[in-house]
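Format notes (please read before filing issues)

Several people have asked whether sequences and structure tokens are stored in separate files. They are not. Every record keeps both together, in the order shown below: the sequence lines, then the token lines. Line labels are part of the format and must not be stripped during preprocessing.
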Amino acid sequence: MKIPASTVLVATALAAFALPAASATPQPPTTITLSGVAVQLEPGTRQVITVNRTSGSHARIAFWRRLGDGRWVRPMVSGNARIGYGGLVAASQRRQGTGTTPLGTYRLISAFGTGPDASGWRLPYRRIRPQSYWVEDNRSPDYNRWRSRYAGGFRWWLDPERVNGSERLADYPTEYQMAIVTSFNYDNPVRYRGAGIFLHVNGAGATSGCVSAPAGFLRSALRRLQPDLLPVIAIGP
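Then the structure lines:
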């Protein structure tokens, strides 16, 4: 039977305005265990740094990458990492100024440091200047963000050893030779939960809540980390 031309035109018009197919349901994170640490993997994460406490404020830190066949390999490990002087705490229970390191898995967002040369590093990088601060002022809209003193918006003059005092990054030339920003309390910051939880170079001892590692480990990690591989750090007991 011959179909009238008008019917064909109507069918074609309806097809043009048809609703798009429903998108695939987002996949939930997958939990795996690497070096005794639980890691929450987002789809696409192929690089992980694990941190697990060994005794006191001492920890073991390892770099992992996922091969094409799904296996995880560990090209780097160090037993000389440090955590906060206050020990480990659940992320939701952490309070600013307690010296605790939050448990959990966090994205590795960007890097900063004292040196001008970050060649070979693929994470976004900023060089520390004399006016560079990390805002820990709970009244500031820029809480838990990098800001210049000259830009204002926070009480840069407050004592950094007290609540609401911000870190002048240039005051820590050893620790912040190289540092990586984590996503702890970053996306939707909760005031008084804490700011500036980094992975940075070892100092003289325990940290104030960050994770620190030998300079050689940090340098090698920064050369390997790739934003498109969605790298994370997982901190466990």
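For reference, the curators noted about this record: The helical segments are 5-16, 215-224. Residues 1-23 have pLDDT under 50 and may be disordered.
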